[in-house]
């Protein structure tokens, strides 16, 4: 699954947002059948956003996490933090999802949000926080690109196309 794009969306007073059709199309054929609800898991993301995982992606991550040694205190702390606030959600007949109030508060969401599709998941940002992230200095981005993509011990090196 390769999701891309940024989508501004409105939230109603109950915390519902409609997932854009262009984004749902990228998810492919609904594994639950035509006309069925799309299933997701939402939880707290990094940098004060929410992360929306398509259910098959969440299941794959949960399977990996279930193999962690729970006798290790760092593993337990990570698992606790990762699962904190995680909830299963599904689209309704109007392709809307309902976000819990405490998750909206965590991400600073009120009347609108920006959905940022990233690989196999979707980040949900407040417009203000998204603007801050999007305003990253191009030199900082270039340094990040060199660190992450430039090779060496931590980078992935050149990616063959």
Number of strands: 8
From the 3D coordinates, which CATH architecture would you assign?
3-Layer(aba) Sandwich
Distance between the termini: 18 Å
Mean of residue pLDDT values: 90
Let me know the largest β-sheet. Answer: 6 strands, antiparallel
Counting DSSP H or I runs of 4 or more residues, the number of helices is: 6
Count up the domains.
Answer: 1
From the helix content, strand content and strand pairing, which structural class follows? alpha+beta
Unreliable segments (pLDDT under 50, ≥5 consecutive)?
Answer: none
Full CATH superfamily name: Transcriptional regulator MraZ domain
Q: Please state the CA-atom Rg, rounded to the nearest Å.
A: 17 Å
Task: Trace the largest sheet across and list its strands.
Answer: 1-7-8-4-3-5
- Stated plainly, the CATH topology is called Chemotaxis protein chec
What level of helicity do the residues show?
Answer: 25-40%
Textual characterization of the structure:
This protein has 161 residues and is α+β, with helices and mostly antiparallel strands. The protein has one domain (3-127): 3-Layer(aba) Sandwich (Chemotaxis protein chec), CATH 3.40.1550. The chain is 34% helix and 26% strand. It is built from six helices and eight strands. It has helices at residues 21-26, 55-65, 73-83, 101-107, 127-134, 138-149, and strands at residues 3-10, 16-18, 39-44, 50-54, 87-90, 96-98, 112-119, 121-125. The radius of gyration is 17 Å and the shape is globular. The model has no long low-confidence stretch (mean pLDDT 90).
């Amino acid at each position: 699954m390769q999701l891309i794009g940024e989508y501004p969306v409105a939230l109603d007073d109950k915390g519902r947002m409609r997932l854009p059709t262009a984004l749902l199309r990228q998810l492919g054929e609904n594994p639950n059948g035509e006309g069925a609800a799309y299933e997701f898991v939402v939880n707290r993301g990094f940098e004060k956003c929410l992360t929306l995982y398509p259910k098959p992606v969440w299941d794959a991550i949960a399977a990996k996490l279930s193999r962690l040694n729970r006798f290790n205190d760092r593993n337990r702390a990570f698992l606790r933090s990762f699962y904190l606030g995680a909830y299963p959600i599904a689209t309704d007949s109007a392709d809307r999802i309902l976000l819990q109030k405490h998750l909206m508060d965590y991400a600073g969401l009120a009347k609108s949000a920006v959905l940022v599709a990233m690989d196999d998941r979707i980040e949900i940002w407040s417009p203000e926080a998204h603007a801050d992230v999007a305003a990253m200095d191009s030199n900082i981005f270039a340094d990040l690109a060199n660190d992450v993509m430039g090779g060496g011990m931590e980078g992935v090196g050149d990616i063959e196309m």
